[in-house]
Amino acid sequence: MKRVILPALALASVLAFAASCGNSGKPADGNKTGGDDKIVRPAPPDEYKGKTNPTPDAVEEGKKLFETHCVTCHGPNGDGDSPVGSALTPPATNLTDAKLQDAIGDDYIFWRITEGGKALGYEGMTPFKETLKEEQRWQVVAYVRSLKK
Ligand code: HEC
């Protein structure tokens, strides 16, 4: 019997721990820039700070790239509603959130697409600096902006 009970107890405590973690749903103190989650959104590093989008109207091009590279996690509508994106910690951001959109600059979006989650110590989001050309990353920024609700 022991062999059955011990793993069951271990599993129960893991589940209890996971449940207690999941309930601390308040934004961290560092998150002063919008969004209802716990992601800390610092200003982009100097090499990105203040950059402006050279192709702000490239929404159609950006949409195609988004459909290929981003919907797996951010969902077809960009609102983070996807099985893969919601399974990540933190989950893939709802990019349609107006509060978030107002709080972040194009430089921030470009930086996060370029460097991925690692820029903030998260594993979830892949960096796109090798996959997409600089111009394509800006086209995606233009599309992300068009998602604002
Ligand atoms: C493998 C899953 C995955 C893919 C693919 C992915 N993302 Fe993300 N993305 C995430 C996760 C998870 C987060 C939240 C954690 C973080 O900020 O790194 C995130 C965060 C972001 C943020 C920062 C928003 C914030 O909360 O501050 C932006 C902007 C973004 N993604 C845009 C994109 C775009 C555009 C693409 C496609 C070029 C893309 N992502 C592809 C998982 C992904």
Order of SSEs, N→C? HHHHHHH
Instruction: Briefly note the structural class of the backbone.
Output: mainly alpha
Portion in strands:
under 5%
Number of domains: 1
> Which cofactor or ligand species appear?
heme C
Q: Spell out the CATH superfamily.
A: Cytochrome c-like domain
Give the low-pLDDT segments: 11-34
User: How many DSSP H or I helices?
Assistant: 7
CATH architecture assignment name: Orthogonal Bundle
CATH class: Mainly Alpha
Distance, first to last CA: 56 Å
CA radius of gyration is 18 Å
CATH topology: Cytochrome Bc1 Complex, Chain D, domain 2
Average predicted local confidence, pLDDT: 82
Major beta-sheet overview: none
Which overall shape is indicated by the principal axes computed on the Cα atoms?
globular
Q: Which percent bin holds the helix content?
A: 40-55%
Number of strands: 0
Which helices and strands, and how do they pair?
Blueprint: H1 2-22, H2 59-69, H3 71-74, H4 83-87, H5 98-103, H6 106-115, H7 134-146
The structure holds heme C.
Could you please describe the fold and organization of this structure?
The structure is a single chain. The protein has a single domain (27-146), classed as Cytochrome c-like domain (Cytochrome Bc1 Complex, Chain D, domain 2, Orthogonal Bundle), CATH 1.10.760.10. The radius of gyration is 18 Å and the shape is globular. The chain contains seven helices and no strands. The N and C termini lie far apart (56 Å). The chain has helices at 2-22, 59-69, 71-74, 83-87, 98-103, 106-115, 134-146. By secondary structure, the protein is an all-alpha fold. The structure holds heme C. Residues 35, 39, 41, 66, 69-70, 72-74, 85, 88, 90-93, 109, 112-113, 117, 120, 122, 124-126, 128, 140, 144 line the site of heme C (HEC).
